[in-house]
Automatic annotation (TrEMBL):
Keyword entries, A-Z: DNA-binding, Transcription, Transcription regulation
Pfam families the record matches: GntR, UTRA
Protein's UniProt name: GntR family transcriptional regulator
Matches recorded under CDD domains: WHTH_GntR (cd07377)
Keyword Transcription: yes
Span of domain HTH gntR-type: 30-100
Superkingdom of origin: Bacteria
Molecular-function GO terms, alphabetical: DNA binding; DNA-binding transcription factor activity
Source organism (scientific name): Microlunatus phosphovorus (strain ATCC 700054 / DSM 10555 / JCM 9379 / NBRC 101784 / NCIMB 13414 / VKM Ac-1990 / NM-1)
Keyword Endoplasmic reticulum: no
GO biological process, one term: negative regulation of DNA-templated transcription
Amino acid sequence: MSRPEAVGSRGDTSAWILASAAEFVAPPGTPAHAAIADWLLRIARHEQVSPGDRLPAERALAAALGVSRMTLRQALGQLQATGHLVRTVGANGGNFIAVPRPLVDITNMIGLSPQLLRSVPMVTSRLLEAVTVSARHDVASALDLPNGAPVHRVVRVREAEGRPVVLERSHFPAVLLPNLVRLDLSGSIYEVLRDHYDAAPATADEELLPILPARDEAELLQTSPSVPALRILRTARTRNGVAIEYSDDIFRTDLLRVVVSGRLS
């Protein structure tokens, strides 16, 4: 891959990628989409390209490569699935070189914000809903409550450097946490549980489910319904074994490295 004499803007990077694409030749016997995926991976790792850079428009890139948009999209989808590219939708959407993914250990009970702040300088929460409702059967069962018992439902989108990474849908027993929905829930809810109620989660049972997000979930996370995500069902308990939270969360694994740490007892 040749390098332009001057580097200045993302427009320069896009032009360089298109110029490199014009030189692309698929190795004999290699499917075109697989060869393009390998080429794109080399592009993403090249010193000319930085995390967060946008790839050229699909039509222009496919034309420069000499392939159909369908073939290009196969290659793009492969790299999106492995976390090397990120696709966003909307007026400013497109395919972007992935920023290194922050690590989240779901077995760590300190909460999401402190973990993300180890990797990125800014973590925010967008509160979508904080209401008290009657518990559905699955929520009541997870929280050891009778059907219809009052629970606080809190729905938030967690963002790392302005990018949505987790859709949180949490339920808390109202009888144990009065007035929770009136408190500031823009930060760590686990800190709120600890500081206001002395009810910090200490253990959790979790079920991990690979999914394709529903359209409304994908819109909130600014991703595509065709990009795989991770759904995590969690019941958290205090040190006394009291169920204090039931959550149904969706993690963007193209933006986060979700791990489970094991410890010998």
